[in-house]
Specification:
By secondary structure, this protein is an alpha/beta fold. It is built from twelve helices and 16 strands. Helix 3 crosses helix 10, helix 7 runs antiparallel to helix 8 and helix 11 runs parallel beside helix 12.
Length: about 375
């Protein structure tokens, strides 16, 4: 399926010179997934609601100051490829071009609605994220903000005595912070911040929480997300059990759509714009080479994440690279830093290789132990 089948020419557009106060009011009034920014009639970028709720930029600031790039899509691009672009770009909207001219946009919801009927073959268990970070009702907003930043996520399930009681999102927190900060005078600002960060999660969380079970079809889960404008569902053992097993997000579904049955593994790259002297193909090939050293390992998902530090050396930024593999033998990861994405990746890859070989050694020891016990049992 080509993007031409689902892209829309209906989108919200603002000039780069428009005040952010006006842009915020558009999000409040129309709730778009994103706004296209133009300068002198030409496409300049997009502004997402996520950017605005994370920012304390004054309302008089021009929209151009908040504009960010988004993956450019052609009308003839395949839906799977565009799903991957949205995941890697960390955005919910992409501009669609016909030649060099902006034609329209496509959103993650457009893609999910178009493929909804094809998702009944998948269950939540097939694609959900197991490693979920949680907080308790008594944790404060300062702790939550640190967790969101550290793990690069946007929402946290809230537990009480181990059972699910709510959900707190980045939007919830920023909404409280901005609302209270608007009341503060310039001299009171620091005190207001400290008081807001001490607010317990219980006071701002959403409850009850929409959940899904492992056996639910992805079609049903996505339908509920689209109908209720949810970005994700908490995965629990049963409807009546508050035990949290993981989380299913729209990004998980898009990632599943971008998976192919080709000979090469599918590698998700976050912040792909930081790649300099290394390509996606080289990254995939290098990871495959490491994995091939352990033939029994089947990679279910590979994620490479780049993060740029402010420090630079002769103009080249210090980059942190994290590689994480989810396999049938457990998880393997490696991280490293270096000036430039290629150097950082190579350091992380070396650490990953050592961890994979260590995992291989553990598995070999377990197999040897099992063989020894069987032989002793035969005596």
């Amino acid at each position: 399926m080509d993007i031409a089948d689902i892209a829309t020419r209906e989108y919200v557009e603002v000039d780069a010179g428009k005040r952010l106060g006006k842009v915020r009011s558009i999000f409040d009034r129309e709730n778009p997934k994103g706004i296209v920014v133009t300068e002198d009639g030409d496409y300049a970028g997009v502004i997402t609601q996520k950017q605005l709720v994370q920012s304390h930029v004054e309302d008089d600031t021009k929209a151009g100051a908040m504009t960010r790039s988004a993956p450019k899509v052609e009308l003839t691009d395949d839906v799977r490829d565009v799903a991957r672009m949205l995941v890697e770009g960390g955005t919910k909207i992409a501009p669609v071009f016909e030649g060099t001219a902006l034609w329209g946009i496509v959103t993650e919801d457009d893609i999910l609605e178009a493929v909804l009927e094809n998702l009944d073959a998948l269950t939540v268990e097939d694609i959900y994220t197991e490693d979920v970070i949680t907080v308790t009702e008594d944790d404060n907003l300062g702790q939550v903000i640190n967790l969101l930043r550290k793990h690069g996520i946007s929402r946290l399930p809230v537990l009480n005595d181990g059972s699910l009681t709510g959900m707190v999102t980045r939007h919830d927190i920023v909404d409280v912070v901005v609302r209270d900060m608007d009341k503060a005078t310039r001299g009171d600002r620091r005190g207001e911040i400290e008081r807001v960060l001490d607010i317990p999660v219980y006071d701002v969380m959403n409850s009850p929480v929409e959940t899904a079970n492992l056996g639910d079809s992805v079609e049903d889960a996505v339908s509920r997300m689209l109908d209720n404008d949810f970005a994700g569902l908490v995965v629990t053992a049963t409807d009546d059990d508050g035990e949290v097993l993981g989380i299913l997000t729209k990004t998980d579904v898009l990632r599943a759509l971008s998976f192919t049955e080709e000979d090469h593994m599918d590698v998700q790259i976050t912040n792909i714009k930081l790649l300099d002297t290394i390509t996606r193909e080289a990254i995939r090939a290098d990871i495959e080479e490491v994995v091939d050293k352990y033939q029994a390992m089947q990679v279910q998902h590979a994620h490479v994440r780049f993060h740029e530090h402010k420090e630079k050396l002769r103009g080249t930024p210090l980059i942190q690279c994290q590689i994480r593999l989810r396999t049938n033998k457990g998880q393997a990861a490696g991280s490293g830093e270096g000036y430039g994405a290629e150097t950082a990746f190579n350091v992380a890859l070396d650490k990953l290789e050592r961890n994979v070989l260590e995992l291989k050694g553990v598995q070999a020891d377990e197999e040897y132990r099992g063989q020894l016990l069987r032989k002793l049992g035969e005596l």
